[in-house]
Amino acid sequence: MKKLILDGNVVAQEMKEDLKGRVESLKRNGVTPCLATILVGNDPSSETYVKMKGNACKRIGMKSIRVHLPEETTTEELLVKIEKLNNDPFVHGILLQHPVPSHIDERKAFETIAIEKDVDGVTSAGYGQTALGFGEYPSCTPAAIMKIIEFYGIEVEGKHAVVVGRSPILGKPVSALLLNENATVTTCHSKTTNLAEILKQADIVVAAVGKPNFIQGDWIKEGAVVLDAGYNKGNIGDIDYNACYEKASAITPVPGGVGPVTIATLLKQTVESAERDMRDRNRVPQFRQA
Ligand code: NAP
After folding, report:
1. Pocket of ligand 1 contains residue 106 by CB under 6 Å
2. 189 Cα: distance to centroid of ligand 1 (angstroms)
3. Looking at the chain, which terminus has fewer C-beta neighbours within 10 angstroms, N or C?
4. pLDDT at 2
């Protein structure tokens, strides 16, 4: 069977080329798209992710502001920082790097991000809009998975999609997006009792578990499309790649699959926020003297 490697770098490159032109056009109109990232504590992986996102902004001409708060930051202190960024007219998108230290109320912090700056799609309002099919900024990894599906012309309508994982930023929103595209969706989680049996019926598999090499090759139906959102220590995905490759008709590698498209999606949604900001400014009524 012919295999299709779903190359996220190719998808991301095309997205970023398009964004460069849009950033230039915004700058000519006096608006520089700006993403603010907030990192709390010193988790090395989180530091790397935040740095990668900041560098990605710079490479396409965007601005990024990095707010790095100490480990002992309280929820209240974090909320104050978020509010400040909400009220900063030069900031178009806010990303709070997940996870925050366990003493912080992460949900409360996410909910404090203004919806028009929630370019990472973490607020409950953003999730609700995504689920209802009119969300401006879906959560980035789910949106990236849908972008890969669209880019490679993978048929979704009428297919059985099985999502393994139900987190608010990944499993649940990607299930909603697949449902909006008329897939029949099954969402599995840690209490699912017959995971292998369910996966064997899947035309499309989305792995969002957070466990290295978790999805086994003999759980995959011959010819299924396999999308691996997992990103574990040592650049290892949530699927057993070599074994799943044998069965799949199309598959995302790790690294170089969903990850680069997630970052490109974050940039795209920040640029869209800046474009909306510019349109709103131009809509301000012009007062002329009589
Ligand atoms: P998470 O919040 O830890 O959620 C993991 C989900 O997997 C939960 O819903 C959990 O079920 C489920 N699960 C755990 N063990 C299971 C089992 N034995 N069988 C079935 N389901 C099981 O993780 P996340 O934030 O969604 O991230 C998932 C993965 O995606 C991680 O590898 C993460 O690094 C990666 N990720 C990648 C990107 C990217 O840009 N590529 C972005 C975000 C996340 P319960 O709900 O029952 O606990």
Report:
1. no
2. 9
3. C
4. 79
CATH of the domain at 203: 3.40.50.720
The verdict on 164 and 251 lying in the same domain is yes
Q: pTM for the complete prediction?
A: 0.96
Q: Based on the structure, what is the number of domains in the chain?
A: 2
Domain that holds residue 61: 30-114
* CB neighbours of residue 282 within 10 Å: 9
Each residue of 12-33: pLDDT tens digit? 999 999 999 999 999 999 999 9
Q: pLDDT tens, 171-226?
A: 999 999 999 999 999 999 999 999 999 999 999 999 999 999 999 999 999 999 99
CA distance 27 to 149: 32
Q: Does residue 7 fall inside a structural domain? A: no
- Comparing CA positions, the residue from 69, 140, 70, 78 lying closest to residue 105 is 78
3-class secondary-structure state, position 109: helix
Q: Is residue 288 over pLDDT 70?
A: no
Residue 124 lies in a domain: no
Q: Using alpha carbons, list the distances in angstroms from residue 103 to 41, 66, 106.
A: 11, 22, 9
φ/ψ of 280, rounded to 5, equals -65, -40
- Residue of 7, 97, 159, 269 marked active site: 97
